[in-house]
UniProtKB/TrEMBL annotation:
Pathway: Nucleotide-sugar biosynthesis; UDP-alpha-D-glucuronate biosynthesis; UDP-alpha-D-glucuronate from UDP-alpha-D-glucose: step 1/1. This is UDP-glucose 6-dehydrogenase. SUPFAM superfamilies: 6-phosphogluconate dehydrogenase C-terminal domain-like, NAD(P)-binding Rossmann-fold domains, UDP-glucose/GDP-mannose dehydrogenase C-terminal domain. It catalyses: UDP-alpha-D-glucose + 2 NAD(+) + H2O = UDP-alpha-D-glucuronate + 2 NADH + 3 H(+).
Length: 444
């Protein structure tokens, strides 16, 4: 009989994983402790903007017209325990308030709720990003609490927001940390389709699987901070960081991706993952091995302040009484996520220094309003720039790349564009009479 799969936690990761498992042909039951989320998911909808996810859910959620009926949701731990052969734990591990370490309370609660109910043989698979050593600890917990024959595996997830569906159905690689051949066999069965299509399947132990995730995110964060450090040097020396990135990116050992200089990385993963990694290294007595990540973090945070300074300079030295239009609020395009958003951080700093800030984002307005209720908001880019003394481009949505600079210029008080993402075409903006400045590039 085909394996039955459960997914615990239905945020970005869990909702996408549940839908993807149904797409692969499995019967899936998803659980969340928030009843409103379950009610929404049961109608095929999600509480966030994630391209393609609602279409995938609608194709499989039971009770919806024309669906396969393979995907259902519940709030009942008993139902989950009774249903599943393989349980994926997809709850989040946010940064602890005021600390570097991550908060494991949701993971711990999920394992403690599920394990005592597991009376029949099952594999529990952790997908959350956790400090190395957690899987071994949770394996002991499961062995202690579960009445049935239950094993643990760790299977980190590498999906990017905005590409969650694509990354889950067609991952670059699948990594599994296992303690037995039986666990490996079960996971090979779960992932037979992508592996059959050529996705590499890496089998390892618990700590290595956990570390693959944190080290991959640390590498990506380092790459971004590296190019941002080069942007600082380029600005001082009169160089052009975009050309530099293009040129070094042709070297296959370096690669062209993740070399876009600008106001740096944000979101719910990279910033908190590198901090939690440093905290864990400290506990393991190898904090020196990761001191470079402190530098990666501080280069990244410096970018936001630098953007504020560029804006101040463009306004003649002070924000007071000046109108500042901010294009973008999400931490990156194709997402409505504003967690640790560099764009909103810059907007907030300028607001605190007396600037009159108006923000527009194609998808993240509601979340931005909730987080920064004192900023001004507009319903379109055009409305946001009306009467502006300076325009800041802080999240590189396609909509902003497609703007007509001549048309927009007629709305503003001054044609000054500061591109915090190096994503607009300087020639196009300058030809339309704008003063265009980007981070890490010559002024004109
Ligand atoms: C990241 C990892 O990419 C993913 O593999 C992991 O599972 C979760 O964390 P995500 O947070 O969705 O995914 O966003 P990502 O696309 O990695 O971008 C992170 C941040 O880096 C964004 O704020 C983005 O604007 C910024 N960034 C990215 C740059 O500043 N420059 C770049 O060249 C690339």
């Amino acid at each position: 009989m085909a394996l039955r799969i459960t997914v615990i936690g239905t945020g970005y990761l869990g909702a996408t994983h549940a839908a993807a498992m149904a797409e692969l042909g499995f019967e899936v039951l998803g659980l969340d402790v928030v009843p409103e989320k379950i009610a929404l998911l049961s109608t095929g909808r999600v509480p966030m903007y994630e391209p393609g996810l609602e279409e995938l859910l609608t194709r499989h959620v039971a009770g919806l017209e024309g669906s396969t009926g393979r995907l259902r949701f519940t709030t009942s731990w008993e139902e989950i325990a009774e249903f599943g052969d393989v349980h994926f734990v997809c709850v989040n591990t946010p940064q602890k308030h005021g600390e570097y370490a991550c908060d494991m309370s949701y993971v711990d609660a999920a394992f403690s709720s599920l394990a005592p109910l597991l009376t029949r043989p099952a594999l529990v698979v952790g997908k959350s990003t956790v400090p190395v050593g957690s899987a071994a600890r949770l394996a002991r917990l499961v062995a202690e609490l579960a009445p049935g024959e239950v094993e643990l595996a760790w299977n980190p997830e590498f999906l990017r927001e905005g590409f969650a569906v694509e990354d889950t159905l067609h991952p670059d690689r699948i990594v599994v940390g296992v303690a037995s051949e039986r666990a490996e066999k079960l996971l090979r069965e779960v992932y037979a389709t992508p592996v059959g299509e050529g996705t590499p399947f890496v089998v390892t132990d618990y700590p290595t699987a956990e570390l693959v995730k944190t080290s991959a995110n640390s590498f990506l964060a380092t790459k971004i901070s590296f190019i941002n450090a080069m942007a600082e040097v380029c600005e001082a020396a009169g160089g052009d960081v975009q050309k530099l990135a293009e040129a070094i990116g042709y070297d296959e050992r370096i690669g062209a991706k993740f070399l876009r200089a600008g106001i740096g990385f944000g979101g719910g993963c990279l910033p908190k993952d590198i901090r939690a990694f440093m905290a864990r290294a400290g506990e393991l007595g190898v904090d020196q091995a990761l001191t470079f990540l402190r530098e990666v973090d501080s280069i990244n945070m410096r970018r936001r302040g630098h953007m504020v300074e560029l804006a101040r300079e463009a306004l003649g030295g002070a924000f007071l009484g000046k109108r500042v239009a901010v294009l973008g609020a999400a931490f990156k395009p194709d997402s409505d996520d504003v967690r640790d958003s560099p764009a909103l951080n810059v907007a907030g700093q300028i607001h605190l220094q007396g600037g009159q800030v108006t923000v527009y984002d194609p998808k993240a307005m509601a979340n931005a309003r909730r987080l920064f209720p004192t900023l001004g908001y507009a319903d379109s880019a055009r409305d946001a720039v009306r009467g502006a003394d300076v325009v800041l481009h802080l999240t590189e949505w396609r909509e902003f790349r497609d703007l007509d600079p001549a048309e927009l210029g007629r709305e503003t008080a001054a044609r000054i564009m500061l591109d915090g993402r190096n994503a607009l075409d300087p020639v196009k903006w300058r030809e339309a009479g704008w003063t265009y400045r980007a981070m890490g590039r010559p002024a004109a």
